[in-house]
Amino acid sequence: MSFTVKKMLQLALLALLLATPITLTYMNIRCDNLSKDIALALNRNLTSLSTAVLELPENQTDAKSMNDLVTLVLSSRSLRSVAYFKNDHYLYSDRDASLNGSISSSLKARLKTEPLPLLYRKCSTLNKIEEVHLVVKGKSGFYQLFMNARYMDDWITNADEYLRGYVVSPDGSAIINKKQDFLFYKSYRSVQFPFTVIVGAKTSQVLLGICSLTAFIIILCMIIGLIANHIHTKNFSFRKDIDIAIKNKEFIAYYQPIVCNKTHHIVGSELLCRWLYRHKKLVAPNQFITKVELNGQIKPITLQLLKQLAVDKPIIAGKNPDFYVSVNFTLSMLSDPVFVNDVMCLIKQSPSLQHGLVFEMTERENTANAIIKLDKIMQRFRELGVRWALDDFGTGYSSLSSLKELNFDIIKIDRLFVNSADTDAVTSSILNNIALLGKELKCRLIAEGVETETQLNKLKSLDVDYTQGFYFSTPINREAFEEYKYQHEQKMLVANKKKQQCYSALKYHGPALDI
């Protein structure tokens, strides 16, 4: 994926169109929530301070009361000082236990014209420090709280990265922070105290938010594009590698023997695909089988393997006319009429494939909706001498309906049941039921994944016809299979010869030999 100038401009425009409404919507919601949060926090703080000072005595304070007052001031970040006045004269403060000064004329005017409590901003006449004053009514006098305006300004300023806010009195004069011009804003009016919180966004802040989100969307889209391109390139490279492998005939047939549980002879084998990458390195099946099944490349691979089988089968079968080889097929493969026709043509052209050939229907797909069509296809192959096996029975999409509607010749029991049949009672019971079902349907039973003699004996006790697994052999190439089959038959001859000798010895009833 190449990022040209034109594509980048288009991406930037798209990101801007997305970022603008998202930013405006977010900021509006954030303004509303933040104004409420600030108002509620300010309410809590003012209520807490008011409650604390109203507990102080209104007459001359004692040492304990003065200590409590000083502690209150020192423990609060926003509170600078507290004073009590009555009849327009201060009586005491946290700094002086005895006062006799008059309150300011402006405060007198406010007490006459404005409802209590009072909340306003004023510059101190003594040290020219900006303060926020809160005046609350006591029983007979008034408590005046002097709060740090700069601290409260910073508190609201730092409440959000992009948004700004201020607090005004009912007449519109600023209490906390200076008034600002906003592109849009939200306000929240306190019920307990005379103030309104206004939170908004300036044009510069809105533009900064839009630009930041636009940049984020562009970067995110580029990352997603690169990841998608990597996946696409990887998949394309995989398909290309498979195409080259098919052309170079890198897919080879491996065979795993299938053994009769009664005679112990090798009666057949399953053809399994192996990828000899560039004719040098074997690739594990789990690294490519599922992928080629999904992208459809399994079809030409299977055709190539069937062509190999046409040559290999007479060799690995030897003198056994009943020897068979099974090949895996999926529903999607059989649903392709072109592929089905190619397979049929190959069978007609290859005498060795016209007998002793079994197609295993794998159960990775649901066959419920394709029963009728599938039955017709299976019947067409039967007319060419092909038998059918239901693979991995008991897992995936396998069901009794598949067995009932489709006339399978063989049932292959999944290794899942074989592996734990000798240790798990429930699995053993299921395996027993599968064996009984196979007999009722007059299907041959093959157990996959047999790895131990205990498992083999368990299957024999259930009258399972054939077994397949690492206990006998791993999947091997044709030459190795020929050798294994020969050695296996030689062992069988020796074993049978010993049995015959033992049988003859048991039948001898003459006089004891004089040694």
From TrEMBL:
InterPro entries: Cyclic-di-GMP_PDE-like, EAL_dom, EAL_sf. This is Diguanylate phosphodiesterase. Keywords: Membrane, Transmembrane, Transmembrane helix. Pfam families: EAL (PF00563). It comes from Photobacterium leiognathi. Residues 235-489 form the EAL domain. The chain crosses the membrane at residues 206-231. One of its GO terms (molecular function) is cyclic-guanylate-specific phosphodiesterase activity.
